[in-house]
Write a structure and sequence with these properties.
single chain, 263 residues, mainly alpha, 70% helix, ABC-2_transporter-like, Transporter
Length: 263
Amino acid sequence: MRAYLMIAGMWVRSTMAYRASFVMTTFGSFATTFFDFVGIMLMFSRVDALGGWSLPEVAFLYGLSGTSFGLADLVIGSMERLGRRVRDGTLDTLLVRPAPVLAQVAADQFALRRLGRVVQGLLVLGWSVARLDVDWTPLKLLLMPVMLVSGCGIFCAVFVAGAAFQFLAQDASEVQNAFTYGGGALLQYPPTVFARELVRGVTFVLPLAFVNWLPATYVLGRPYPLALPEWVAFAPPLVAVACCALAGLAWRAGLRSYRSTGS
């Protein structure tokens, strides 16, 4: 963590040297994700419900997914550049430094402008909570921050596992993006609009459903399409820990298999 914070702090100081540029790029990040939600609002201008879910309920899913993914992208989104480093041999430079390679890759080119995505997700989440007709119990209130932190952890694990795969594929950032950015986009919509096979896949294989689908159905009082027991809504922290542990093992295996470019 110390190495990560030092490298990230260096990039933040570099970014703040050009504050006007930082403000414009942050606003650009905010606007880009905002238009994603505008598309959903335009869809609801023609329909009253999507898969049986109202606009505030879909916005609730969107806000949870967008905020969780935005935090993970802010903290560890630079992992997607690993394939390029493997291909051109610049990863060798990180190997000889007295700091963990994972911390160096994760903090490389730390982009504070990604806060725009986090802010946009939080705004949509706040708007949805204000519009929802939910009986807010202490347990449901406690589940809200747990969902965001656990969702961030699950997405971080996907980023690291995708980077570990790039040790073998050398440059497969688009494959990794299919599971990170693609997974974030998938979770913005209710599970009822997808085939049951896909819902099973993101529940039992790549457990992205624990980011928002499962806990959100408990908060909203809706049944989950796979008829799972209610207690699984409180499993995201355990799933996040398990995913991070597996991603760590994959990272160590990938790093041990690295043989440089030979040049």
